[in-house]
Amino acid sequence: MELELQNIINLLKIRYKSDVLMFDDGFLLKNIKHRISETQCADMQDYHRFLEKNDLEAQKLWSLFYVSYTEFFRNSLTSSVLEHIVLPSLFLGKTNLKNKELRIWSAACASGQEPYSLVMLLEELNATFTQPLNYRVFATDLCEKQINMAQKGIYSYQAISNVTAGRLDKWFVQYESVYAIKQELKQRLDFSVFDLLNDKSACPPSSIFGNFDLVMCANVLFYYTKDYRLKILDVIMNSLAVGGFLIVSEVERQFLFNAHWQEVYPQSCIFKKV
Ligand SMILES: C[S@@+](CC[C@H](N)C(=O)[O-])C[C@H]1O[C@@H](n2cnc3c(N)ncnc32)[C@H](O)[C@@H]1O
Q1: What are the Cα distances from residue 119, in Å, to 73, 115, 225, 254?
Q2: Ligand 1 within 6 A of 147 CB?
Q3: Is the model more confident about 257 or about 199?
Q4: For residues 216 and 107, what is the distance between their CA atoms, to the nearest angstrom?
Q5: Is residue 62 in contact with ligand 1, taking CB distance under 6 Å?
């Protein structure tokens, strides 16, 4: 690794007390090159000097490592397979069991669009059963700011662009230019801060024992190098109940092509633990 890149990494390591090398090489370089171009620095050396004297720039660079972009119903095929195949099969499986609670974890929920989309599907499915099923959804993220936003559940007009008019009407209240998630939906979710790479705890403490039927961990694995991805996948594997499901993103499907996982429907990004 060239010396100037190493210097930038050391600077971030000291400032943020975190091992920057856990991030995928391509992702690391892309972010640094982006800031070099934005700051109009000549090269790595020039940028390193600039970074040393500029706290705000260090924050800007660091924030690129924790991309928090998300959407309601982000992947339409995944959402459709979830709605029409996976959730109905989980519901039916539970109705034949003594322990009827369905347990779900959205493991990097950012500002909440992913778990709220899921709870809309769960509520709509529940409405089709005479005996509604109990379920619990735990939504976590490393970033406290994102969790605070998720708990508020207030979204801009742009943020709700994937939400159908029917769902908008049913699950949101409009206040001037923003849309707020209705209280009845909010209370179905348990939000907390949780780092998937934290060695001390294997699942969100509020969930107590894991044993999830479904874990959503989309658009996170790609941040990290192979060792860290495997660590996260291990955490998820151990938190899933037998025959549980994991949802990732399109770019992350490749990380699950092995003997431990089986995609339930081609290209769906939904994998069953085998
Ligand atoms: C791009 S967003 C993905 C949001 C959502 N899952 C989706 O697919 O739309 C990635 C989120 O992962 C979170 N994240 C990154 N590393 C994490 C970790 N080690 N533990 C928990 N969350 C993490 C970030 O804070 C960010 O909010």
Answers
A1: 11, 6, 31, 27
A2: no
A3: 257
A4: 6
A5: no
